[in-house]
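Record 1 of the preview.
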Amino acid sequence: MADGASDIQADDAGLLNGALPTPLYHQVYLVLRERIQSGVYADGETLPGEQELARAFDVSRITVKRALNELAANNLVSRHRGRGTIVSTGGVIPLVSGSFETLISSLKSARTRRDRSEGRSSQKATGRAVLLSDDLCAGGYRGAVFH
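->
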């Protein structure tokens, strides 16, 4: 479908849920990303315009623009003023995974670096992170894996 317009479905607005904590622009991003991955929008195809997508999803044009910018940041599309947004399937979808211990370790490290840059004692910062880690692990989260 060369112009992408016929790929917009009448029930697109029903795919979004404003009650979720996930921002609407990210929900639009996820729908469009899934359509790109599944081949609904082929490599080199022009996506519908911002206004058309905004009407289809029943959101503002700015919401659609943020979703398209996120797609572009992940190299799933390229945006061209006057020509539109073109699918480029060379993008990599980031996968986030890891253990809870890795998360806590990263938080400790980040906090220590921030405290050092602000002139605080790294020992004091690490102690706070360890307390946080112990509190969370006592709650039964030890070894949790995030997918």
